[in-house]
Amino acid sequence: MVRPAFRAMFFNKRPTALAPEAGVEMAAERTAHARLRPPNKTGGAVRLFNGETPGHLQAVDNMALVSGKRTVPGMPRSSVANLFATVENQLMTKVLLIEDDSETAEEITAELADRGFEVEWSANGIEGLDKARSSRPDAMIVDRLLPGMDGLTIIEALRKDQVRTPVLVLSALGAVDDRVRGLRMGGDDYLTKPFAIVELVARVEALLRRPAESRETTLRVGPLELDLIERTARRGDRAIDLLPREFRLLEYMMQRSDQLLTRAMLLEEVWNYKFVPATNLVDVHMGRLRHKVDGPDEAPMIHNVRGAGFILRATS
Questions:
Q1: What is the pTM of this model?
Q2: How far apart are CA 147 and CA 154, in angstroms?
Q3: Going from the N-terminus, what domains does the chain have, and what CATH number goes with each?
Q4: What is the pLDDT of residue 25?
Q5: Per-residue pLDDT reduced to its tens digit, 26-43
Q6: What are the tens digits of pLDDT across the range 138-184?
Q7: d(Cα 80, Cα 315) in Å, to the nearest integer?
Q8: Of 42, 218, 284, 306, whose CB neighbour count within 10 A is largest?
Q9: Distance, CA of 182 to CA of 175 (rounded, Å)
Q10: Is 171 helix (H, G, I), strand (E, B) or coil?
């Protein structure tokens, strides 16, 4: 069986320094092919060759074509292959897969590599944690039941180290309690086995699209503090006991403090409604949340803008 890590290399067909002439020809051929096809939707390896070159890579784009092979003035051909491989590796999105089942890992690796991701695979929990700390991946896929160390223990250890890499948890445990525990331990998404490989790819892409602010582990607005890992809330020295929906609502508001949030926005982002129903659902939950956040002797932080929506503001 071919190890997934090597399959990833095979699918990407990187030029090699061991055969510089062949490597340069391959790079030029891939360049021409990439310009004829649409940009990779994942923003993967072909981004360099889609006709839109970042400023710091213009030297690469200005290479002269000599006898059908790319060269750089003053640079040996043997170095050109290394240049292409180095720049491409820097642009590829790195995914760390920690999965003990080799067949599942091979399928995931092949699919992600084919879509332009650089995939590193580990079949052991302890080894996977070491790789997560050292390789700095852009996203992680972690199986829950692993030899050596449980997947949730890996995630918990990374979050304690302030590692904010988005994590997709894979597990055959699909009960509600299992999914909730996986998310509360620091997972960003949870996918139960068996799953469709296209759904896994879509979930990884969705995690990578999230703004950086959503990966913060602690949110603060004035005296208000929200711990996204421990799932706790405090205002000063006072602990606030929140229900799951109230926690999500407060998290959304704290990420957008001092902004007017309409009821339609809250229904779509917090309740996942794609339409605006005739309901006072938002007002009921907001009333309960205000009662918990704004104590009797405390300056109000949640404000109702009549006929418009709600604003969370730090106290003056």
A1: 0.45
A2: 12
A3: 4-91 (no CATH), 93-215 (3.40.50.2300), 218-312 (1.10.10.10)
A4: 42
A5: 444 443 333 333 334 333
A6: 999 999 999 999 999 999 999 888 788 999 999 999 888 898 889 88
A7: 58
A8: 42
A9: 11
A10: strand
